[in-house]
UniProtKB/TrEMBL annotation:
Pfam families: MFS_1
Source organism of this protein record: Myroides albus
Keyword entries, A-Z: Membrane, Transmembrane, Transmembrane helix, Transport
Residues spanning the membrane: 9-31, 51-71, 80-99, 105-125, 137-160, 166-186, 218-235, 255-273, 285-302, 374-397
Major localization listed first in the record, in broad terms: membrane
Classification via InterPro entries: MFS, MFS_dom, MFS_trans_sf, Sugar_transporter_CS, Tet-R_TetA/multi-R_MdtG-like
Protein name per its UniProtKB record: MFS transporter
Domain (Major facilitator superfamily (MFS) profile): residue spans on this chain: 9-401
Keyword flag NAD: no
Membrane topology: Multi-pass membrane protein
Molecular function GO labels: transmembrane transporter activity
Keyword Thylakoid appears in the UniProt entry: no
Amino acid sequence: MQSNKINSIVIFITITIILDSAGFGIIFPVLPELLEHVLHADLSTAAKYGGVLTLAYAFMQFIFAPILGVISDRYGRRRVLLLSLFGFSIDCFIMALAHSYWLLFISRLIAGVTGATFAVASATITDVTDEGNRTKYFGYLNAAFNIGFIIGPLVGGLLGEYHFTYPFYFAGILGLLNVIYGYFFFPETNTSRSLMRLSLKEISPLQSLKSIKRFKQLSLLFIVFFLLSAASHSMESTWSFYTMIQFDWSKQQVGISLTIIGIIGFLVQAYLLQYLSTKLSDQRLVYIGLLTSFIGLLLLSYCVTEIQLWVGITLYLLGSIQQTGFQSMLSKSLDQQHQGELQGVLGSLNGLTTIVAPPVFTYCFYLYTQDNTLPYLPGIAFAIAALLLLISLLLLLRYKK
């Protein structure tokens, strides 16, 4: 394929990934006010219903991610990505115009169906590159995802200060413009597609979970992975609600804080981790990371000043070095021919935690921020996450023995 055609495809895919991740992040600063407006309720109650919206989104992603991947293999990448982008725009406009909670719920279902595009985008890159330059282009995809998650909350916070619907209109219009661009400049890349019927086995999101019984020797590590993945959702589920109720932050402050968090997380993964991985073993990375994040979450749970808040979140992000160390531990536990199957299991486990954890965290936030609640603890989600990290650390110490 000609280089200029590859470049136009990569540009479209990069914009799509940025929009996808930014669209997920843009909602965080404005969701509390949107729910308060729709429900005519306080911030505490809004958090509870926000968890249900997250559940709807995550459940549809869990179901449709493998379906979209298989459909793109059968019928082509182009139509899947264009329809997904169009669905993304429709979801944004529904969120902006919604005057009832049920409309918000339906829009989150649509977003979950059409938002599972990263796998299809990755497959597109595989279609148009060879092994020599594929890693470079995959790097572009990962960078695009991080960029989107950094700018999404910032845009949401800044535009949300004028009106909480503006971020959704902005994202929806960008999505439609990308649909138009893709319609004219994004050709079909899957030249080996077929029109064979889909089987239920091929599109089942539970298929990879059946592989767990094949890896009984890793059962303890799978439990740890599930706990760590669940704990990671405490931040995205309650950060906006927590900072607004505890420190009376505005949407702009929430958006800027999430952008700063994204930048710190990127620097930790891109630079600190690269340095430490040459100095420490995988196990030491995991132990140090878990302990650091545990301390950070405890500070977040009980902080009363913004200085304590930023110290806590910084320690939590520094501790994210455990993620890479733990993934390396897992991969080294199996031979090469089972790596793909292992990643499928981990993806399914992560999908399950995305369904289960956010509603639990937001409901606990609701319970512990009621007027007559004792103890009054807005940071309850971080306290639970800290407990999950402590259990994970103890299980890993047992696994080592």
